[in-house]
Amino acid sequence: MLSKSVRAAALLFPGLLAGAFGYGAVNVLYAFREVPLDVRFTFHTALMRVNGPVMQSLMGLAVLSTLLLAVRSAHRQRWISASASALVIASFVVTRWGNVPINQQIKRWRVDALPADYTEILRHWELFHFTRTGCALVAFALVITAVIGSTTAHGARADVGSHPAPEKERR
């Protein structure tokens, strides 16, 4: 049986990760497109400096909690939880080798001396961001499925012994 704390952690951390990435994709990214480039790059650099340790910690906790859920689950829920963990790891890989190198470039950019292909670089950053956001959202949906499946299965097993036997069986 899964403890409530394992289920709670497995729901909390991937949910926060998906929410943070989703908020960035829906709100921050589109706000970046509306402001002058110097404002965008200044804010982007400041945001990434703060986001770095927070998001890395959150990704680590999401991986650990989904792995723990997989280890403590049985059958179908184990595979669903392991898949969620793999997707969280994928979001980390995309971040580490996709977004982070571009963030390092953006930190060095000056608005009056942008690289000729800066719009293409920003498009790649956005593509990486949508990819990691999608991975995190699907991982969260899988965790929900695994947790609901484990509580439903546990509830069904508990119900089996709680009903009185039919009249024929009692005789």
Automatic annotation (TrEMBL):
Query: Transmembrane residues, as ranges?
Result: 55-72, 79-98, 127-148
Domain of life, source organism: Bacteria
The record's annotation in InterPro entries points to: Anthrone_oxy (IPR013901)
> Which keywords describe this protein according to UniProt?
Membrane, Transmembrane, Transmembrane helix
A UniProt-annotated Pfam family? Anthrone_oxy
Q: What is this protein called?
A: Anthrone oxygenase family protein
What is the species of this protein? Nocardia jiangxiensis
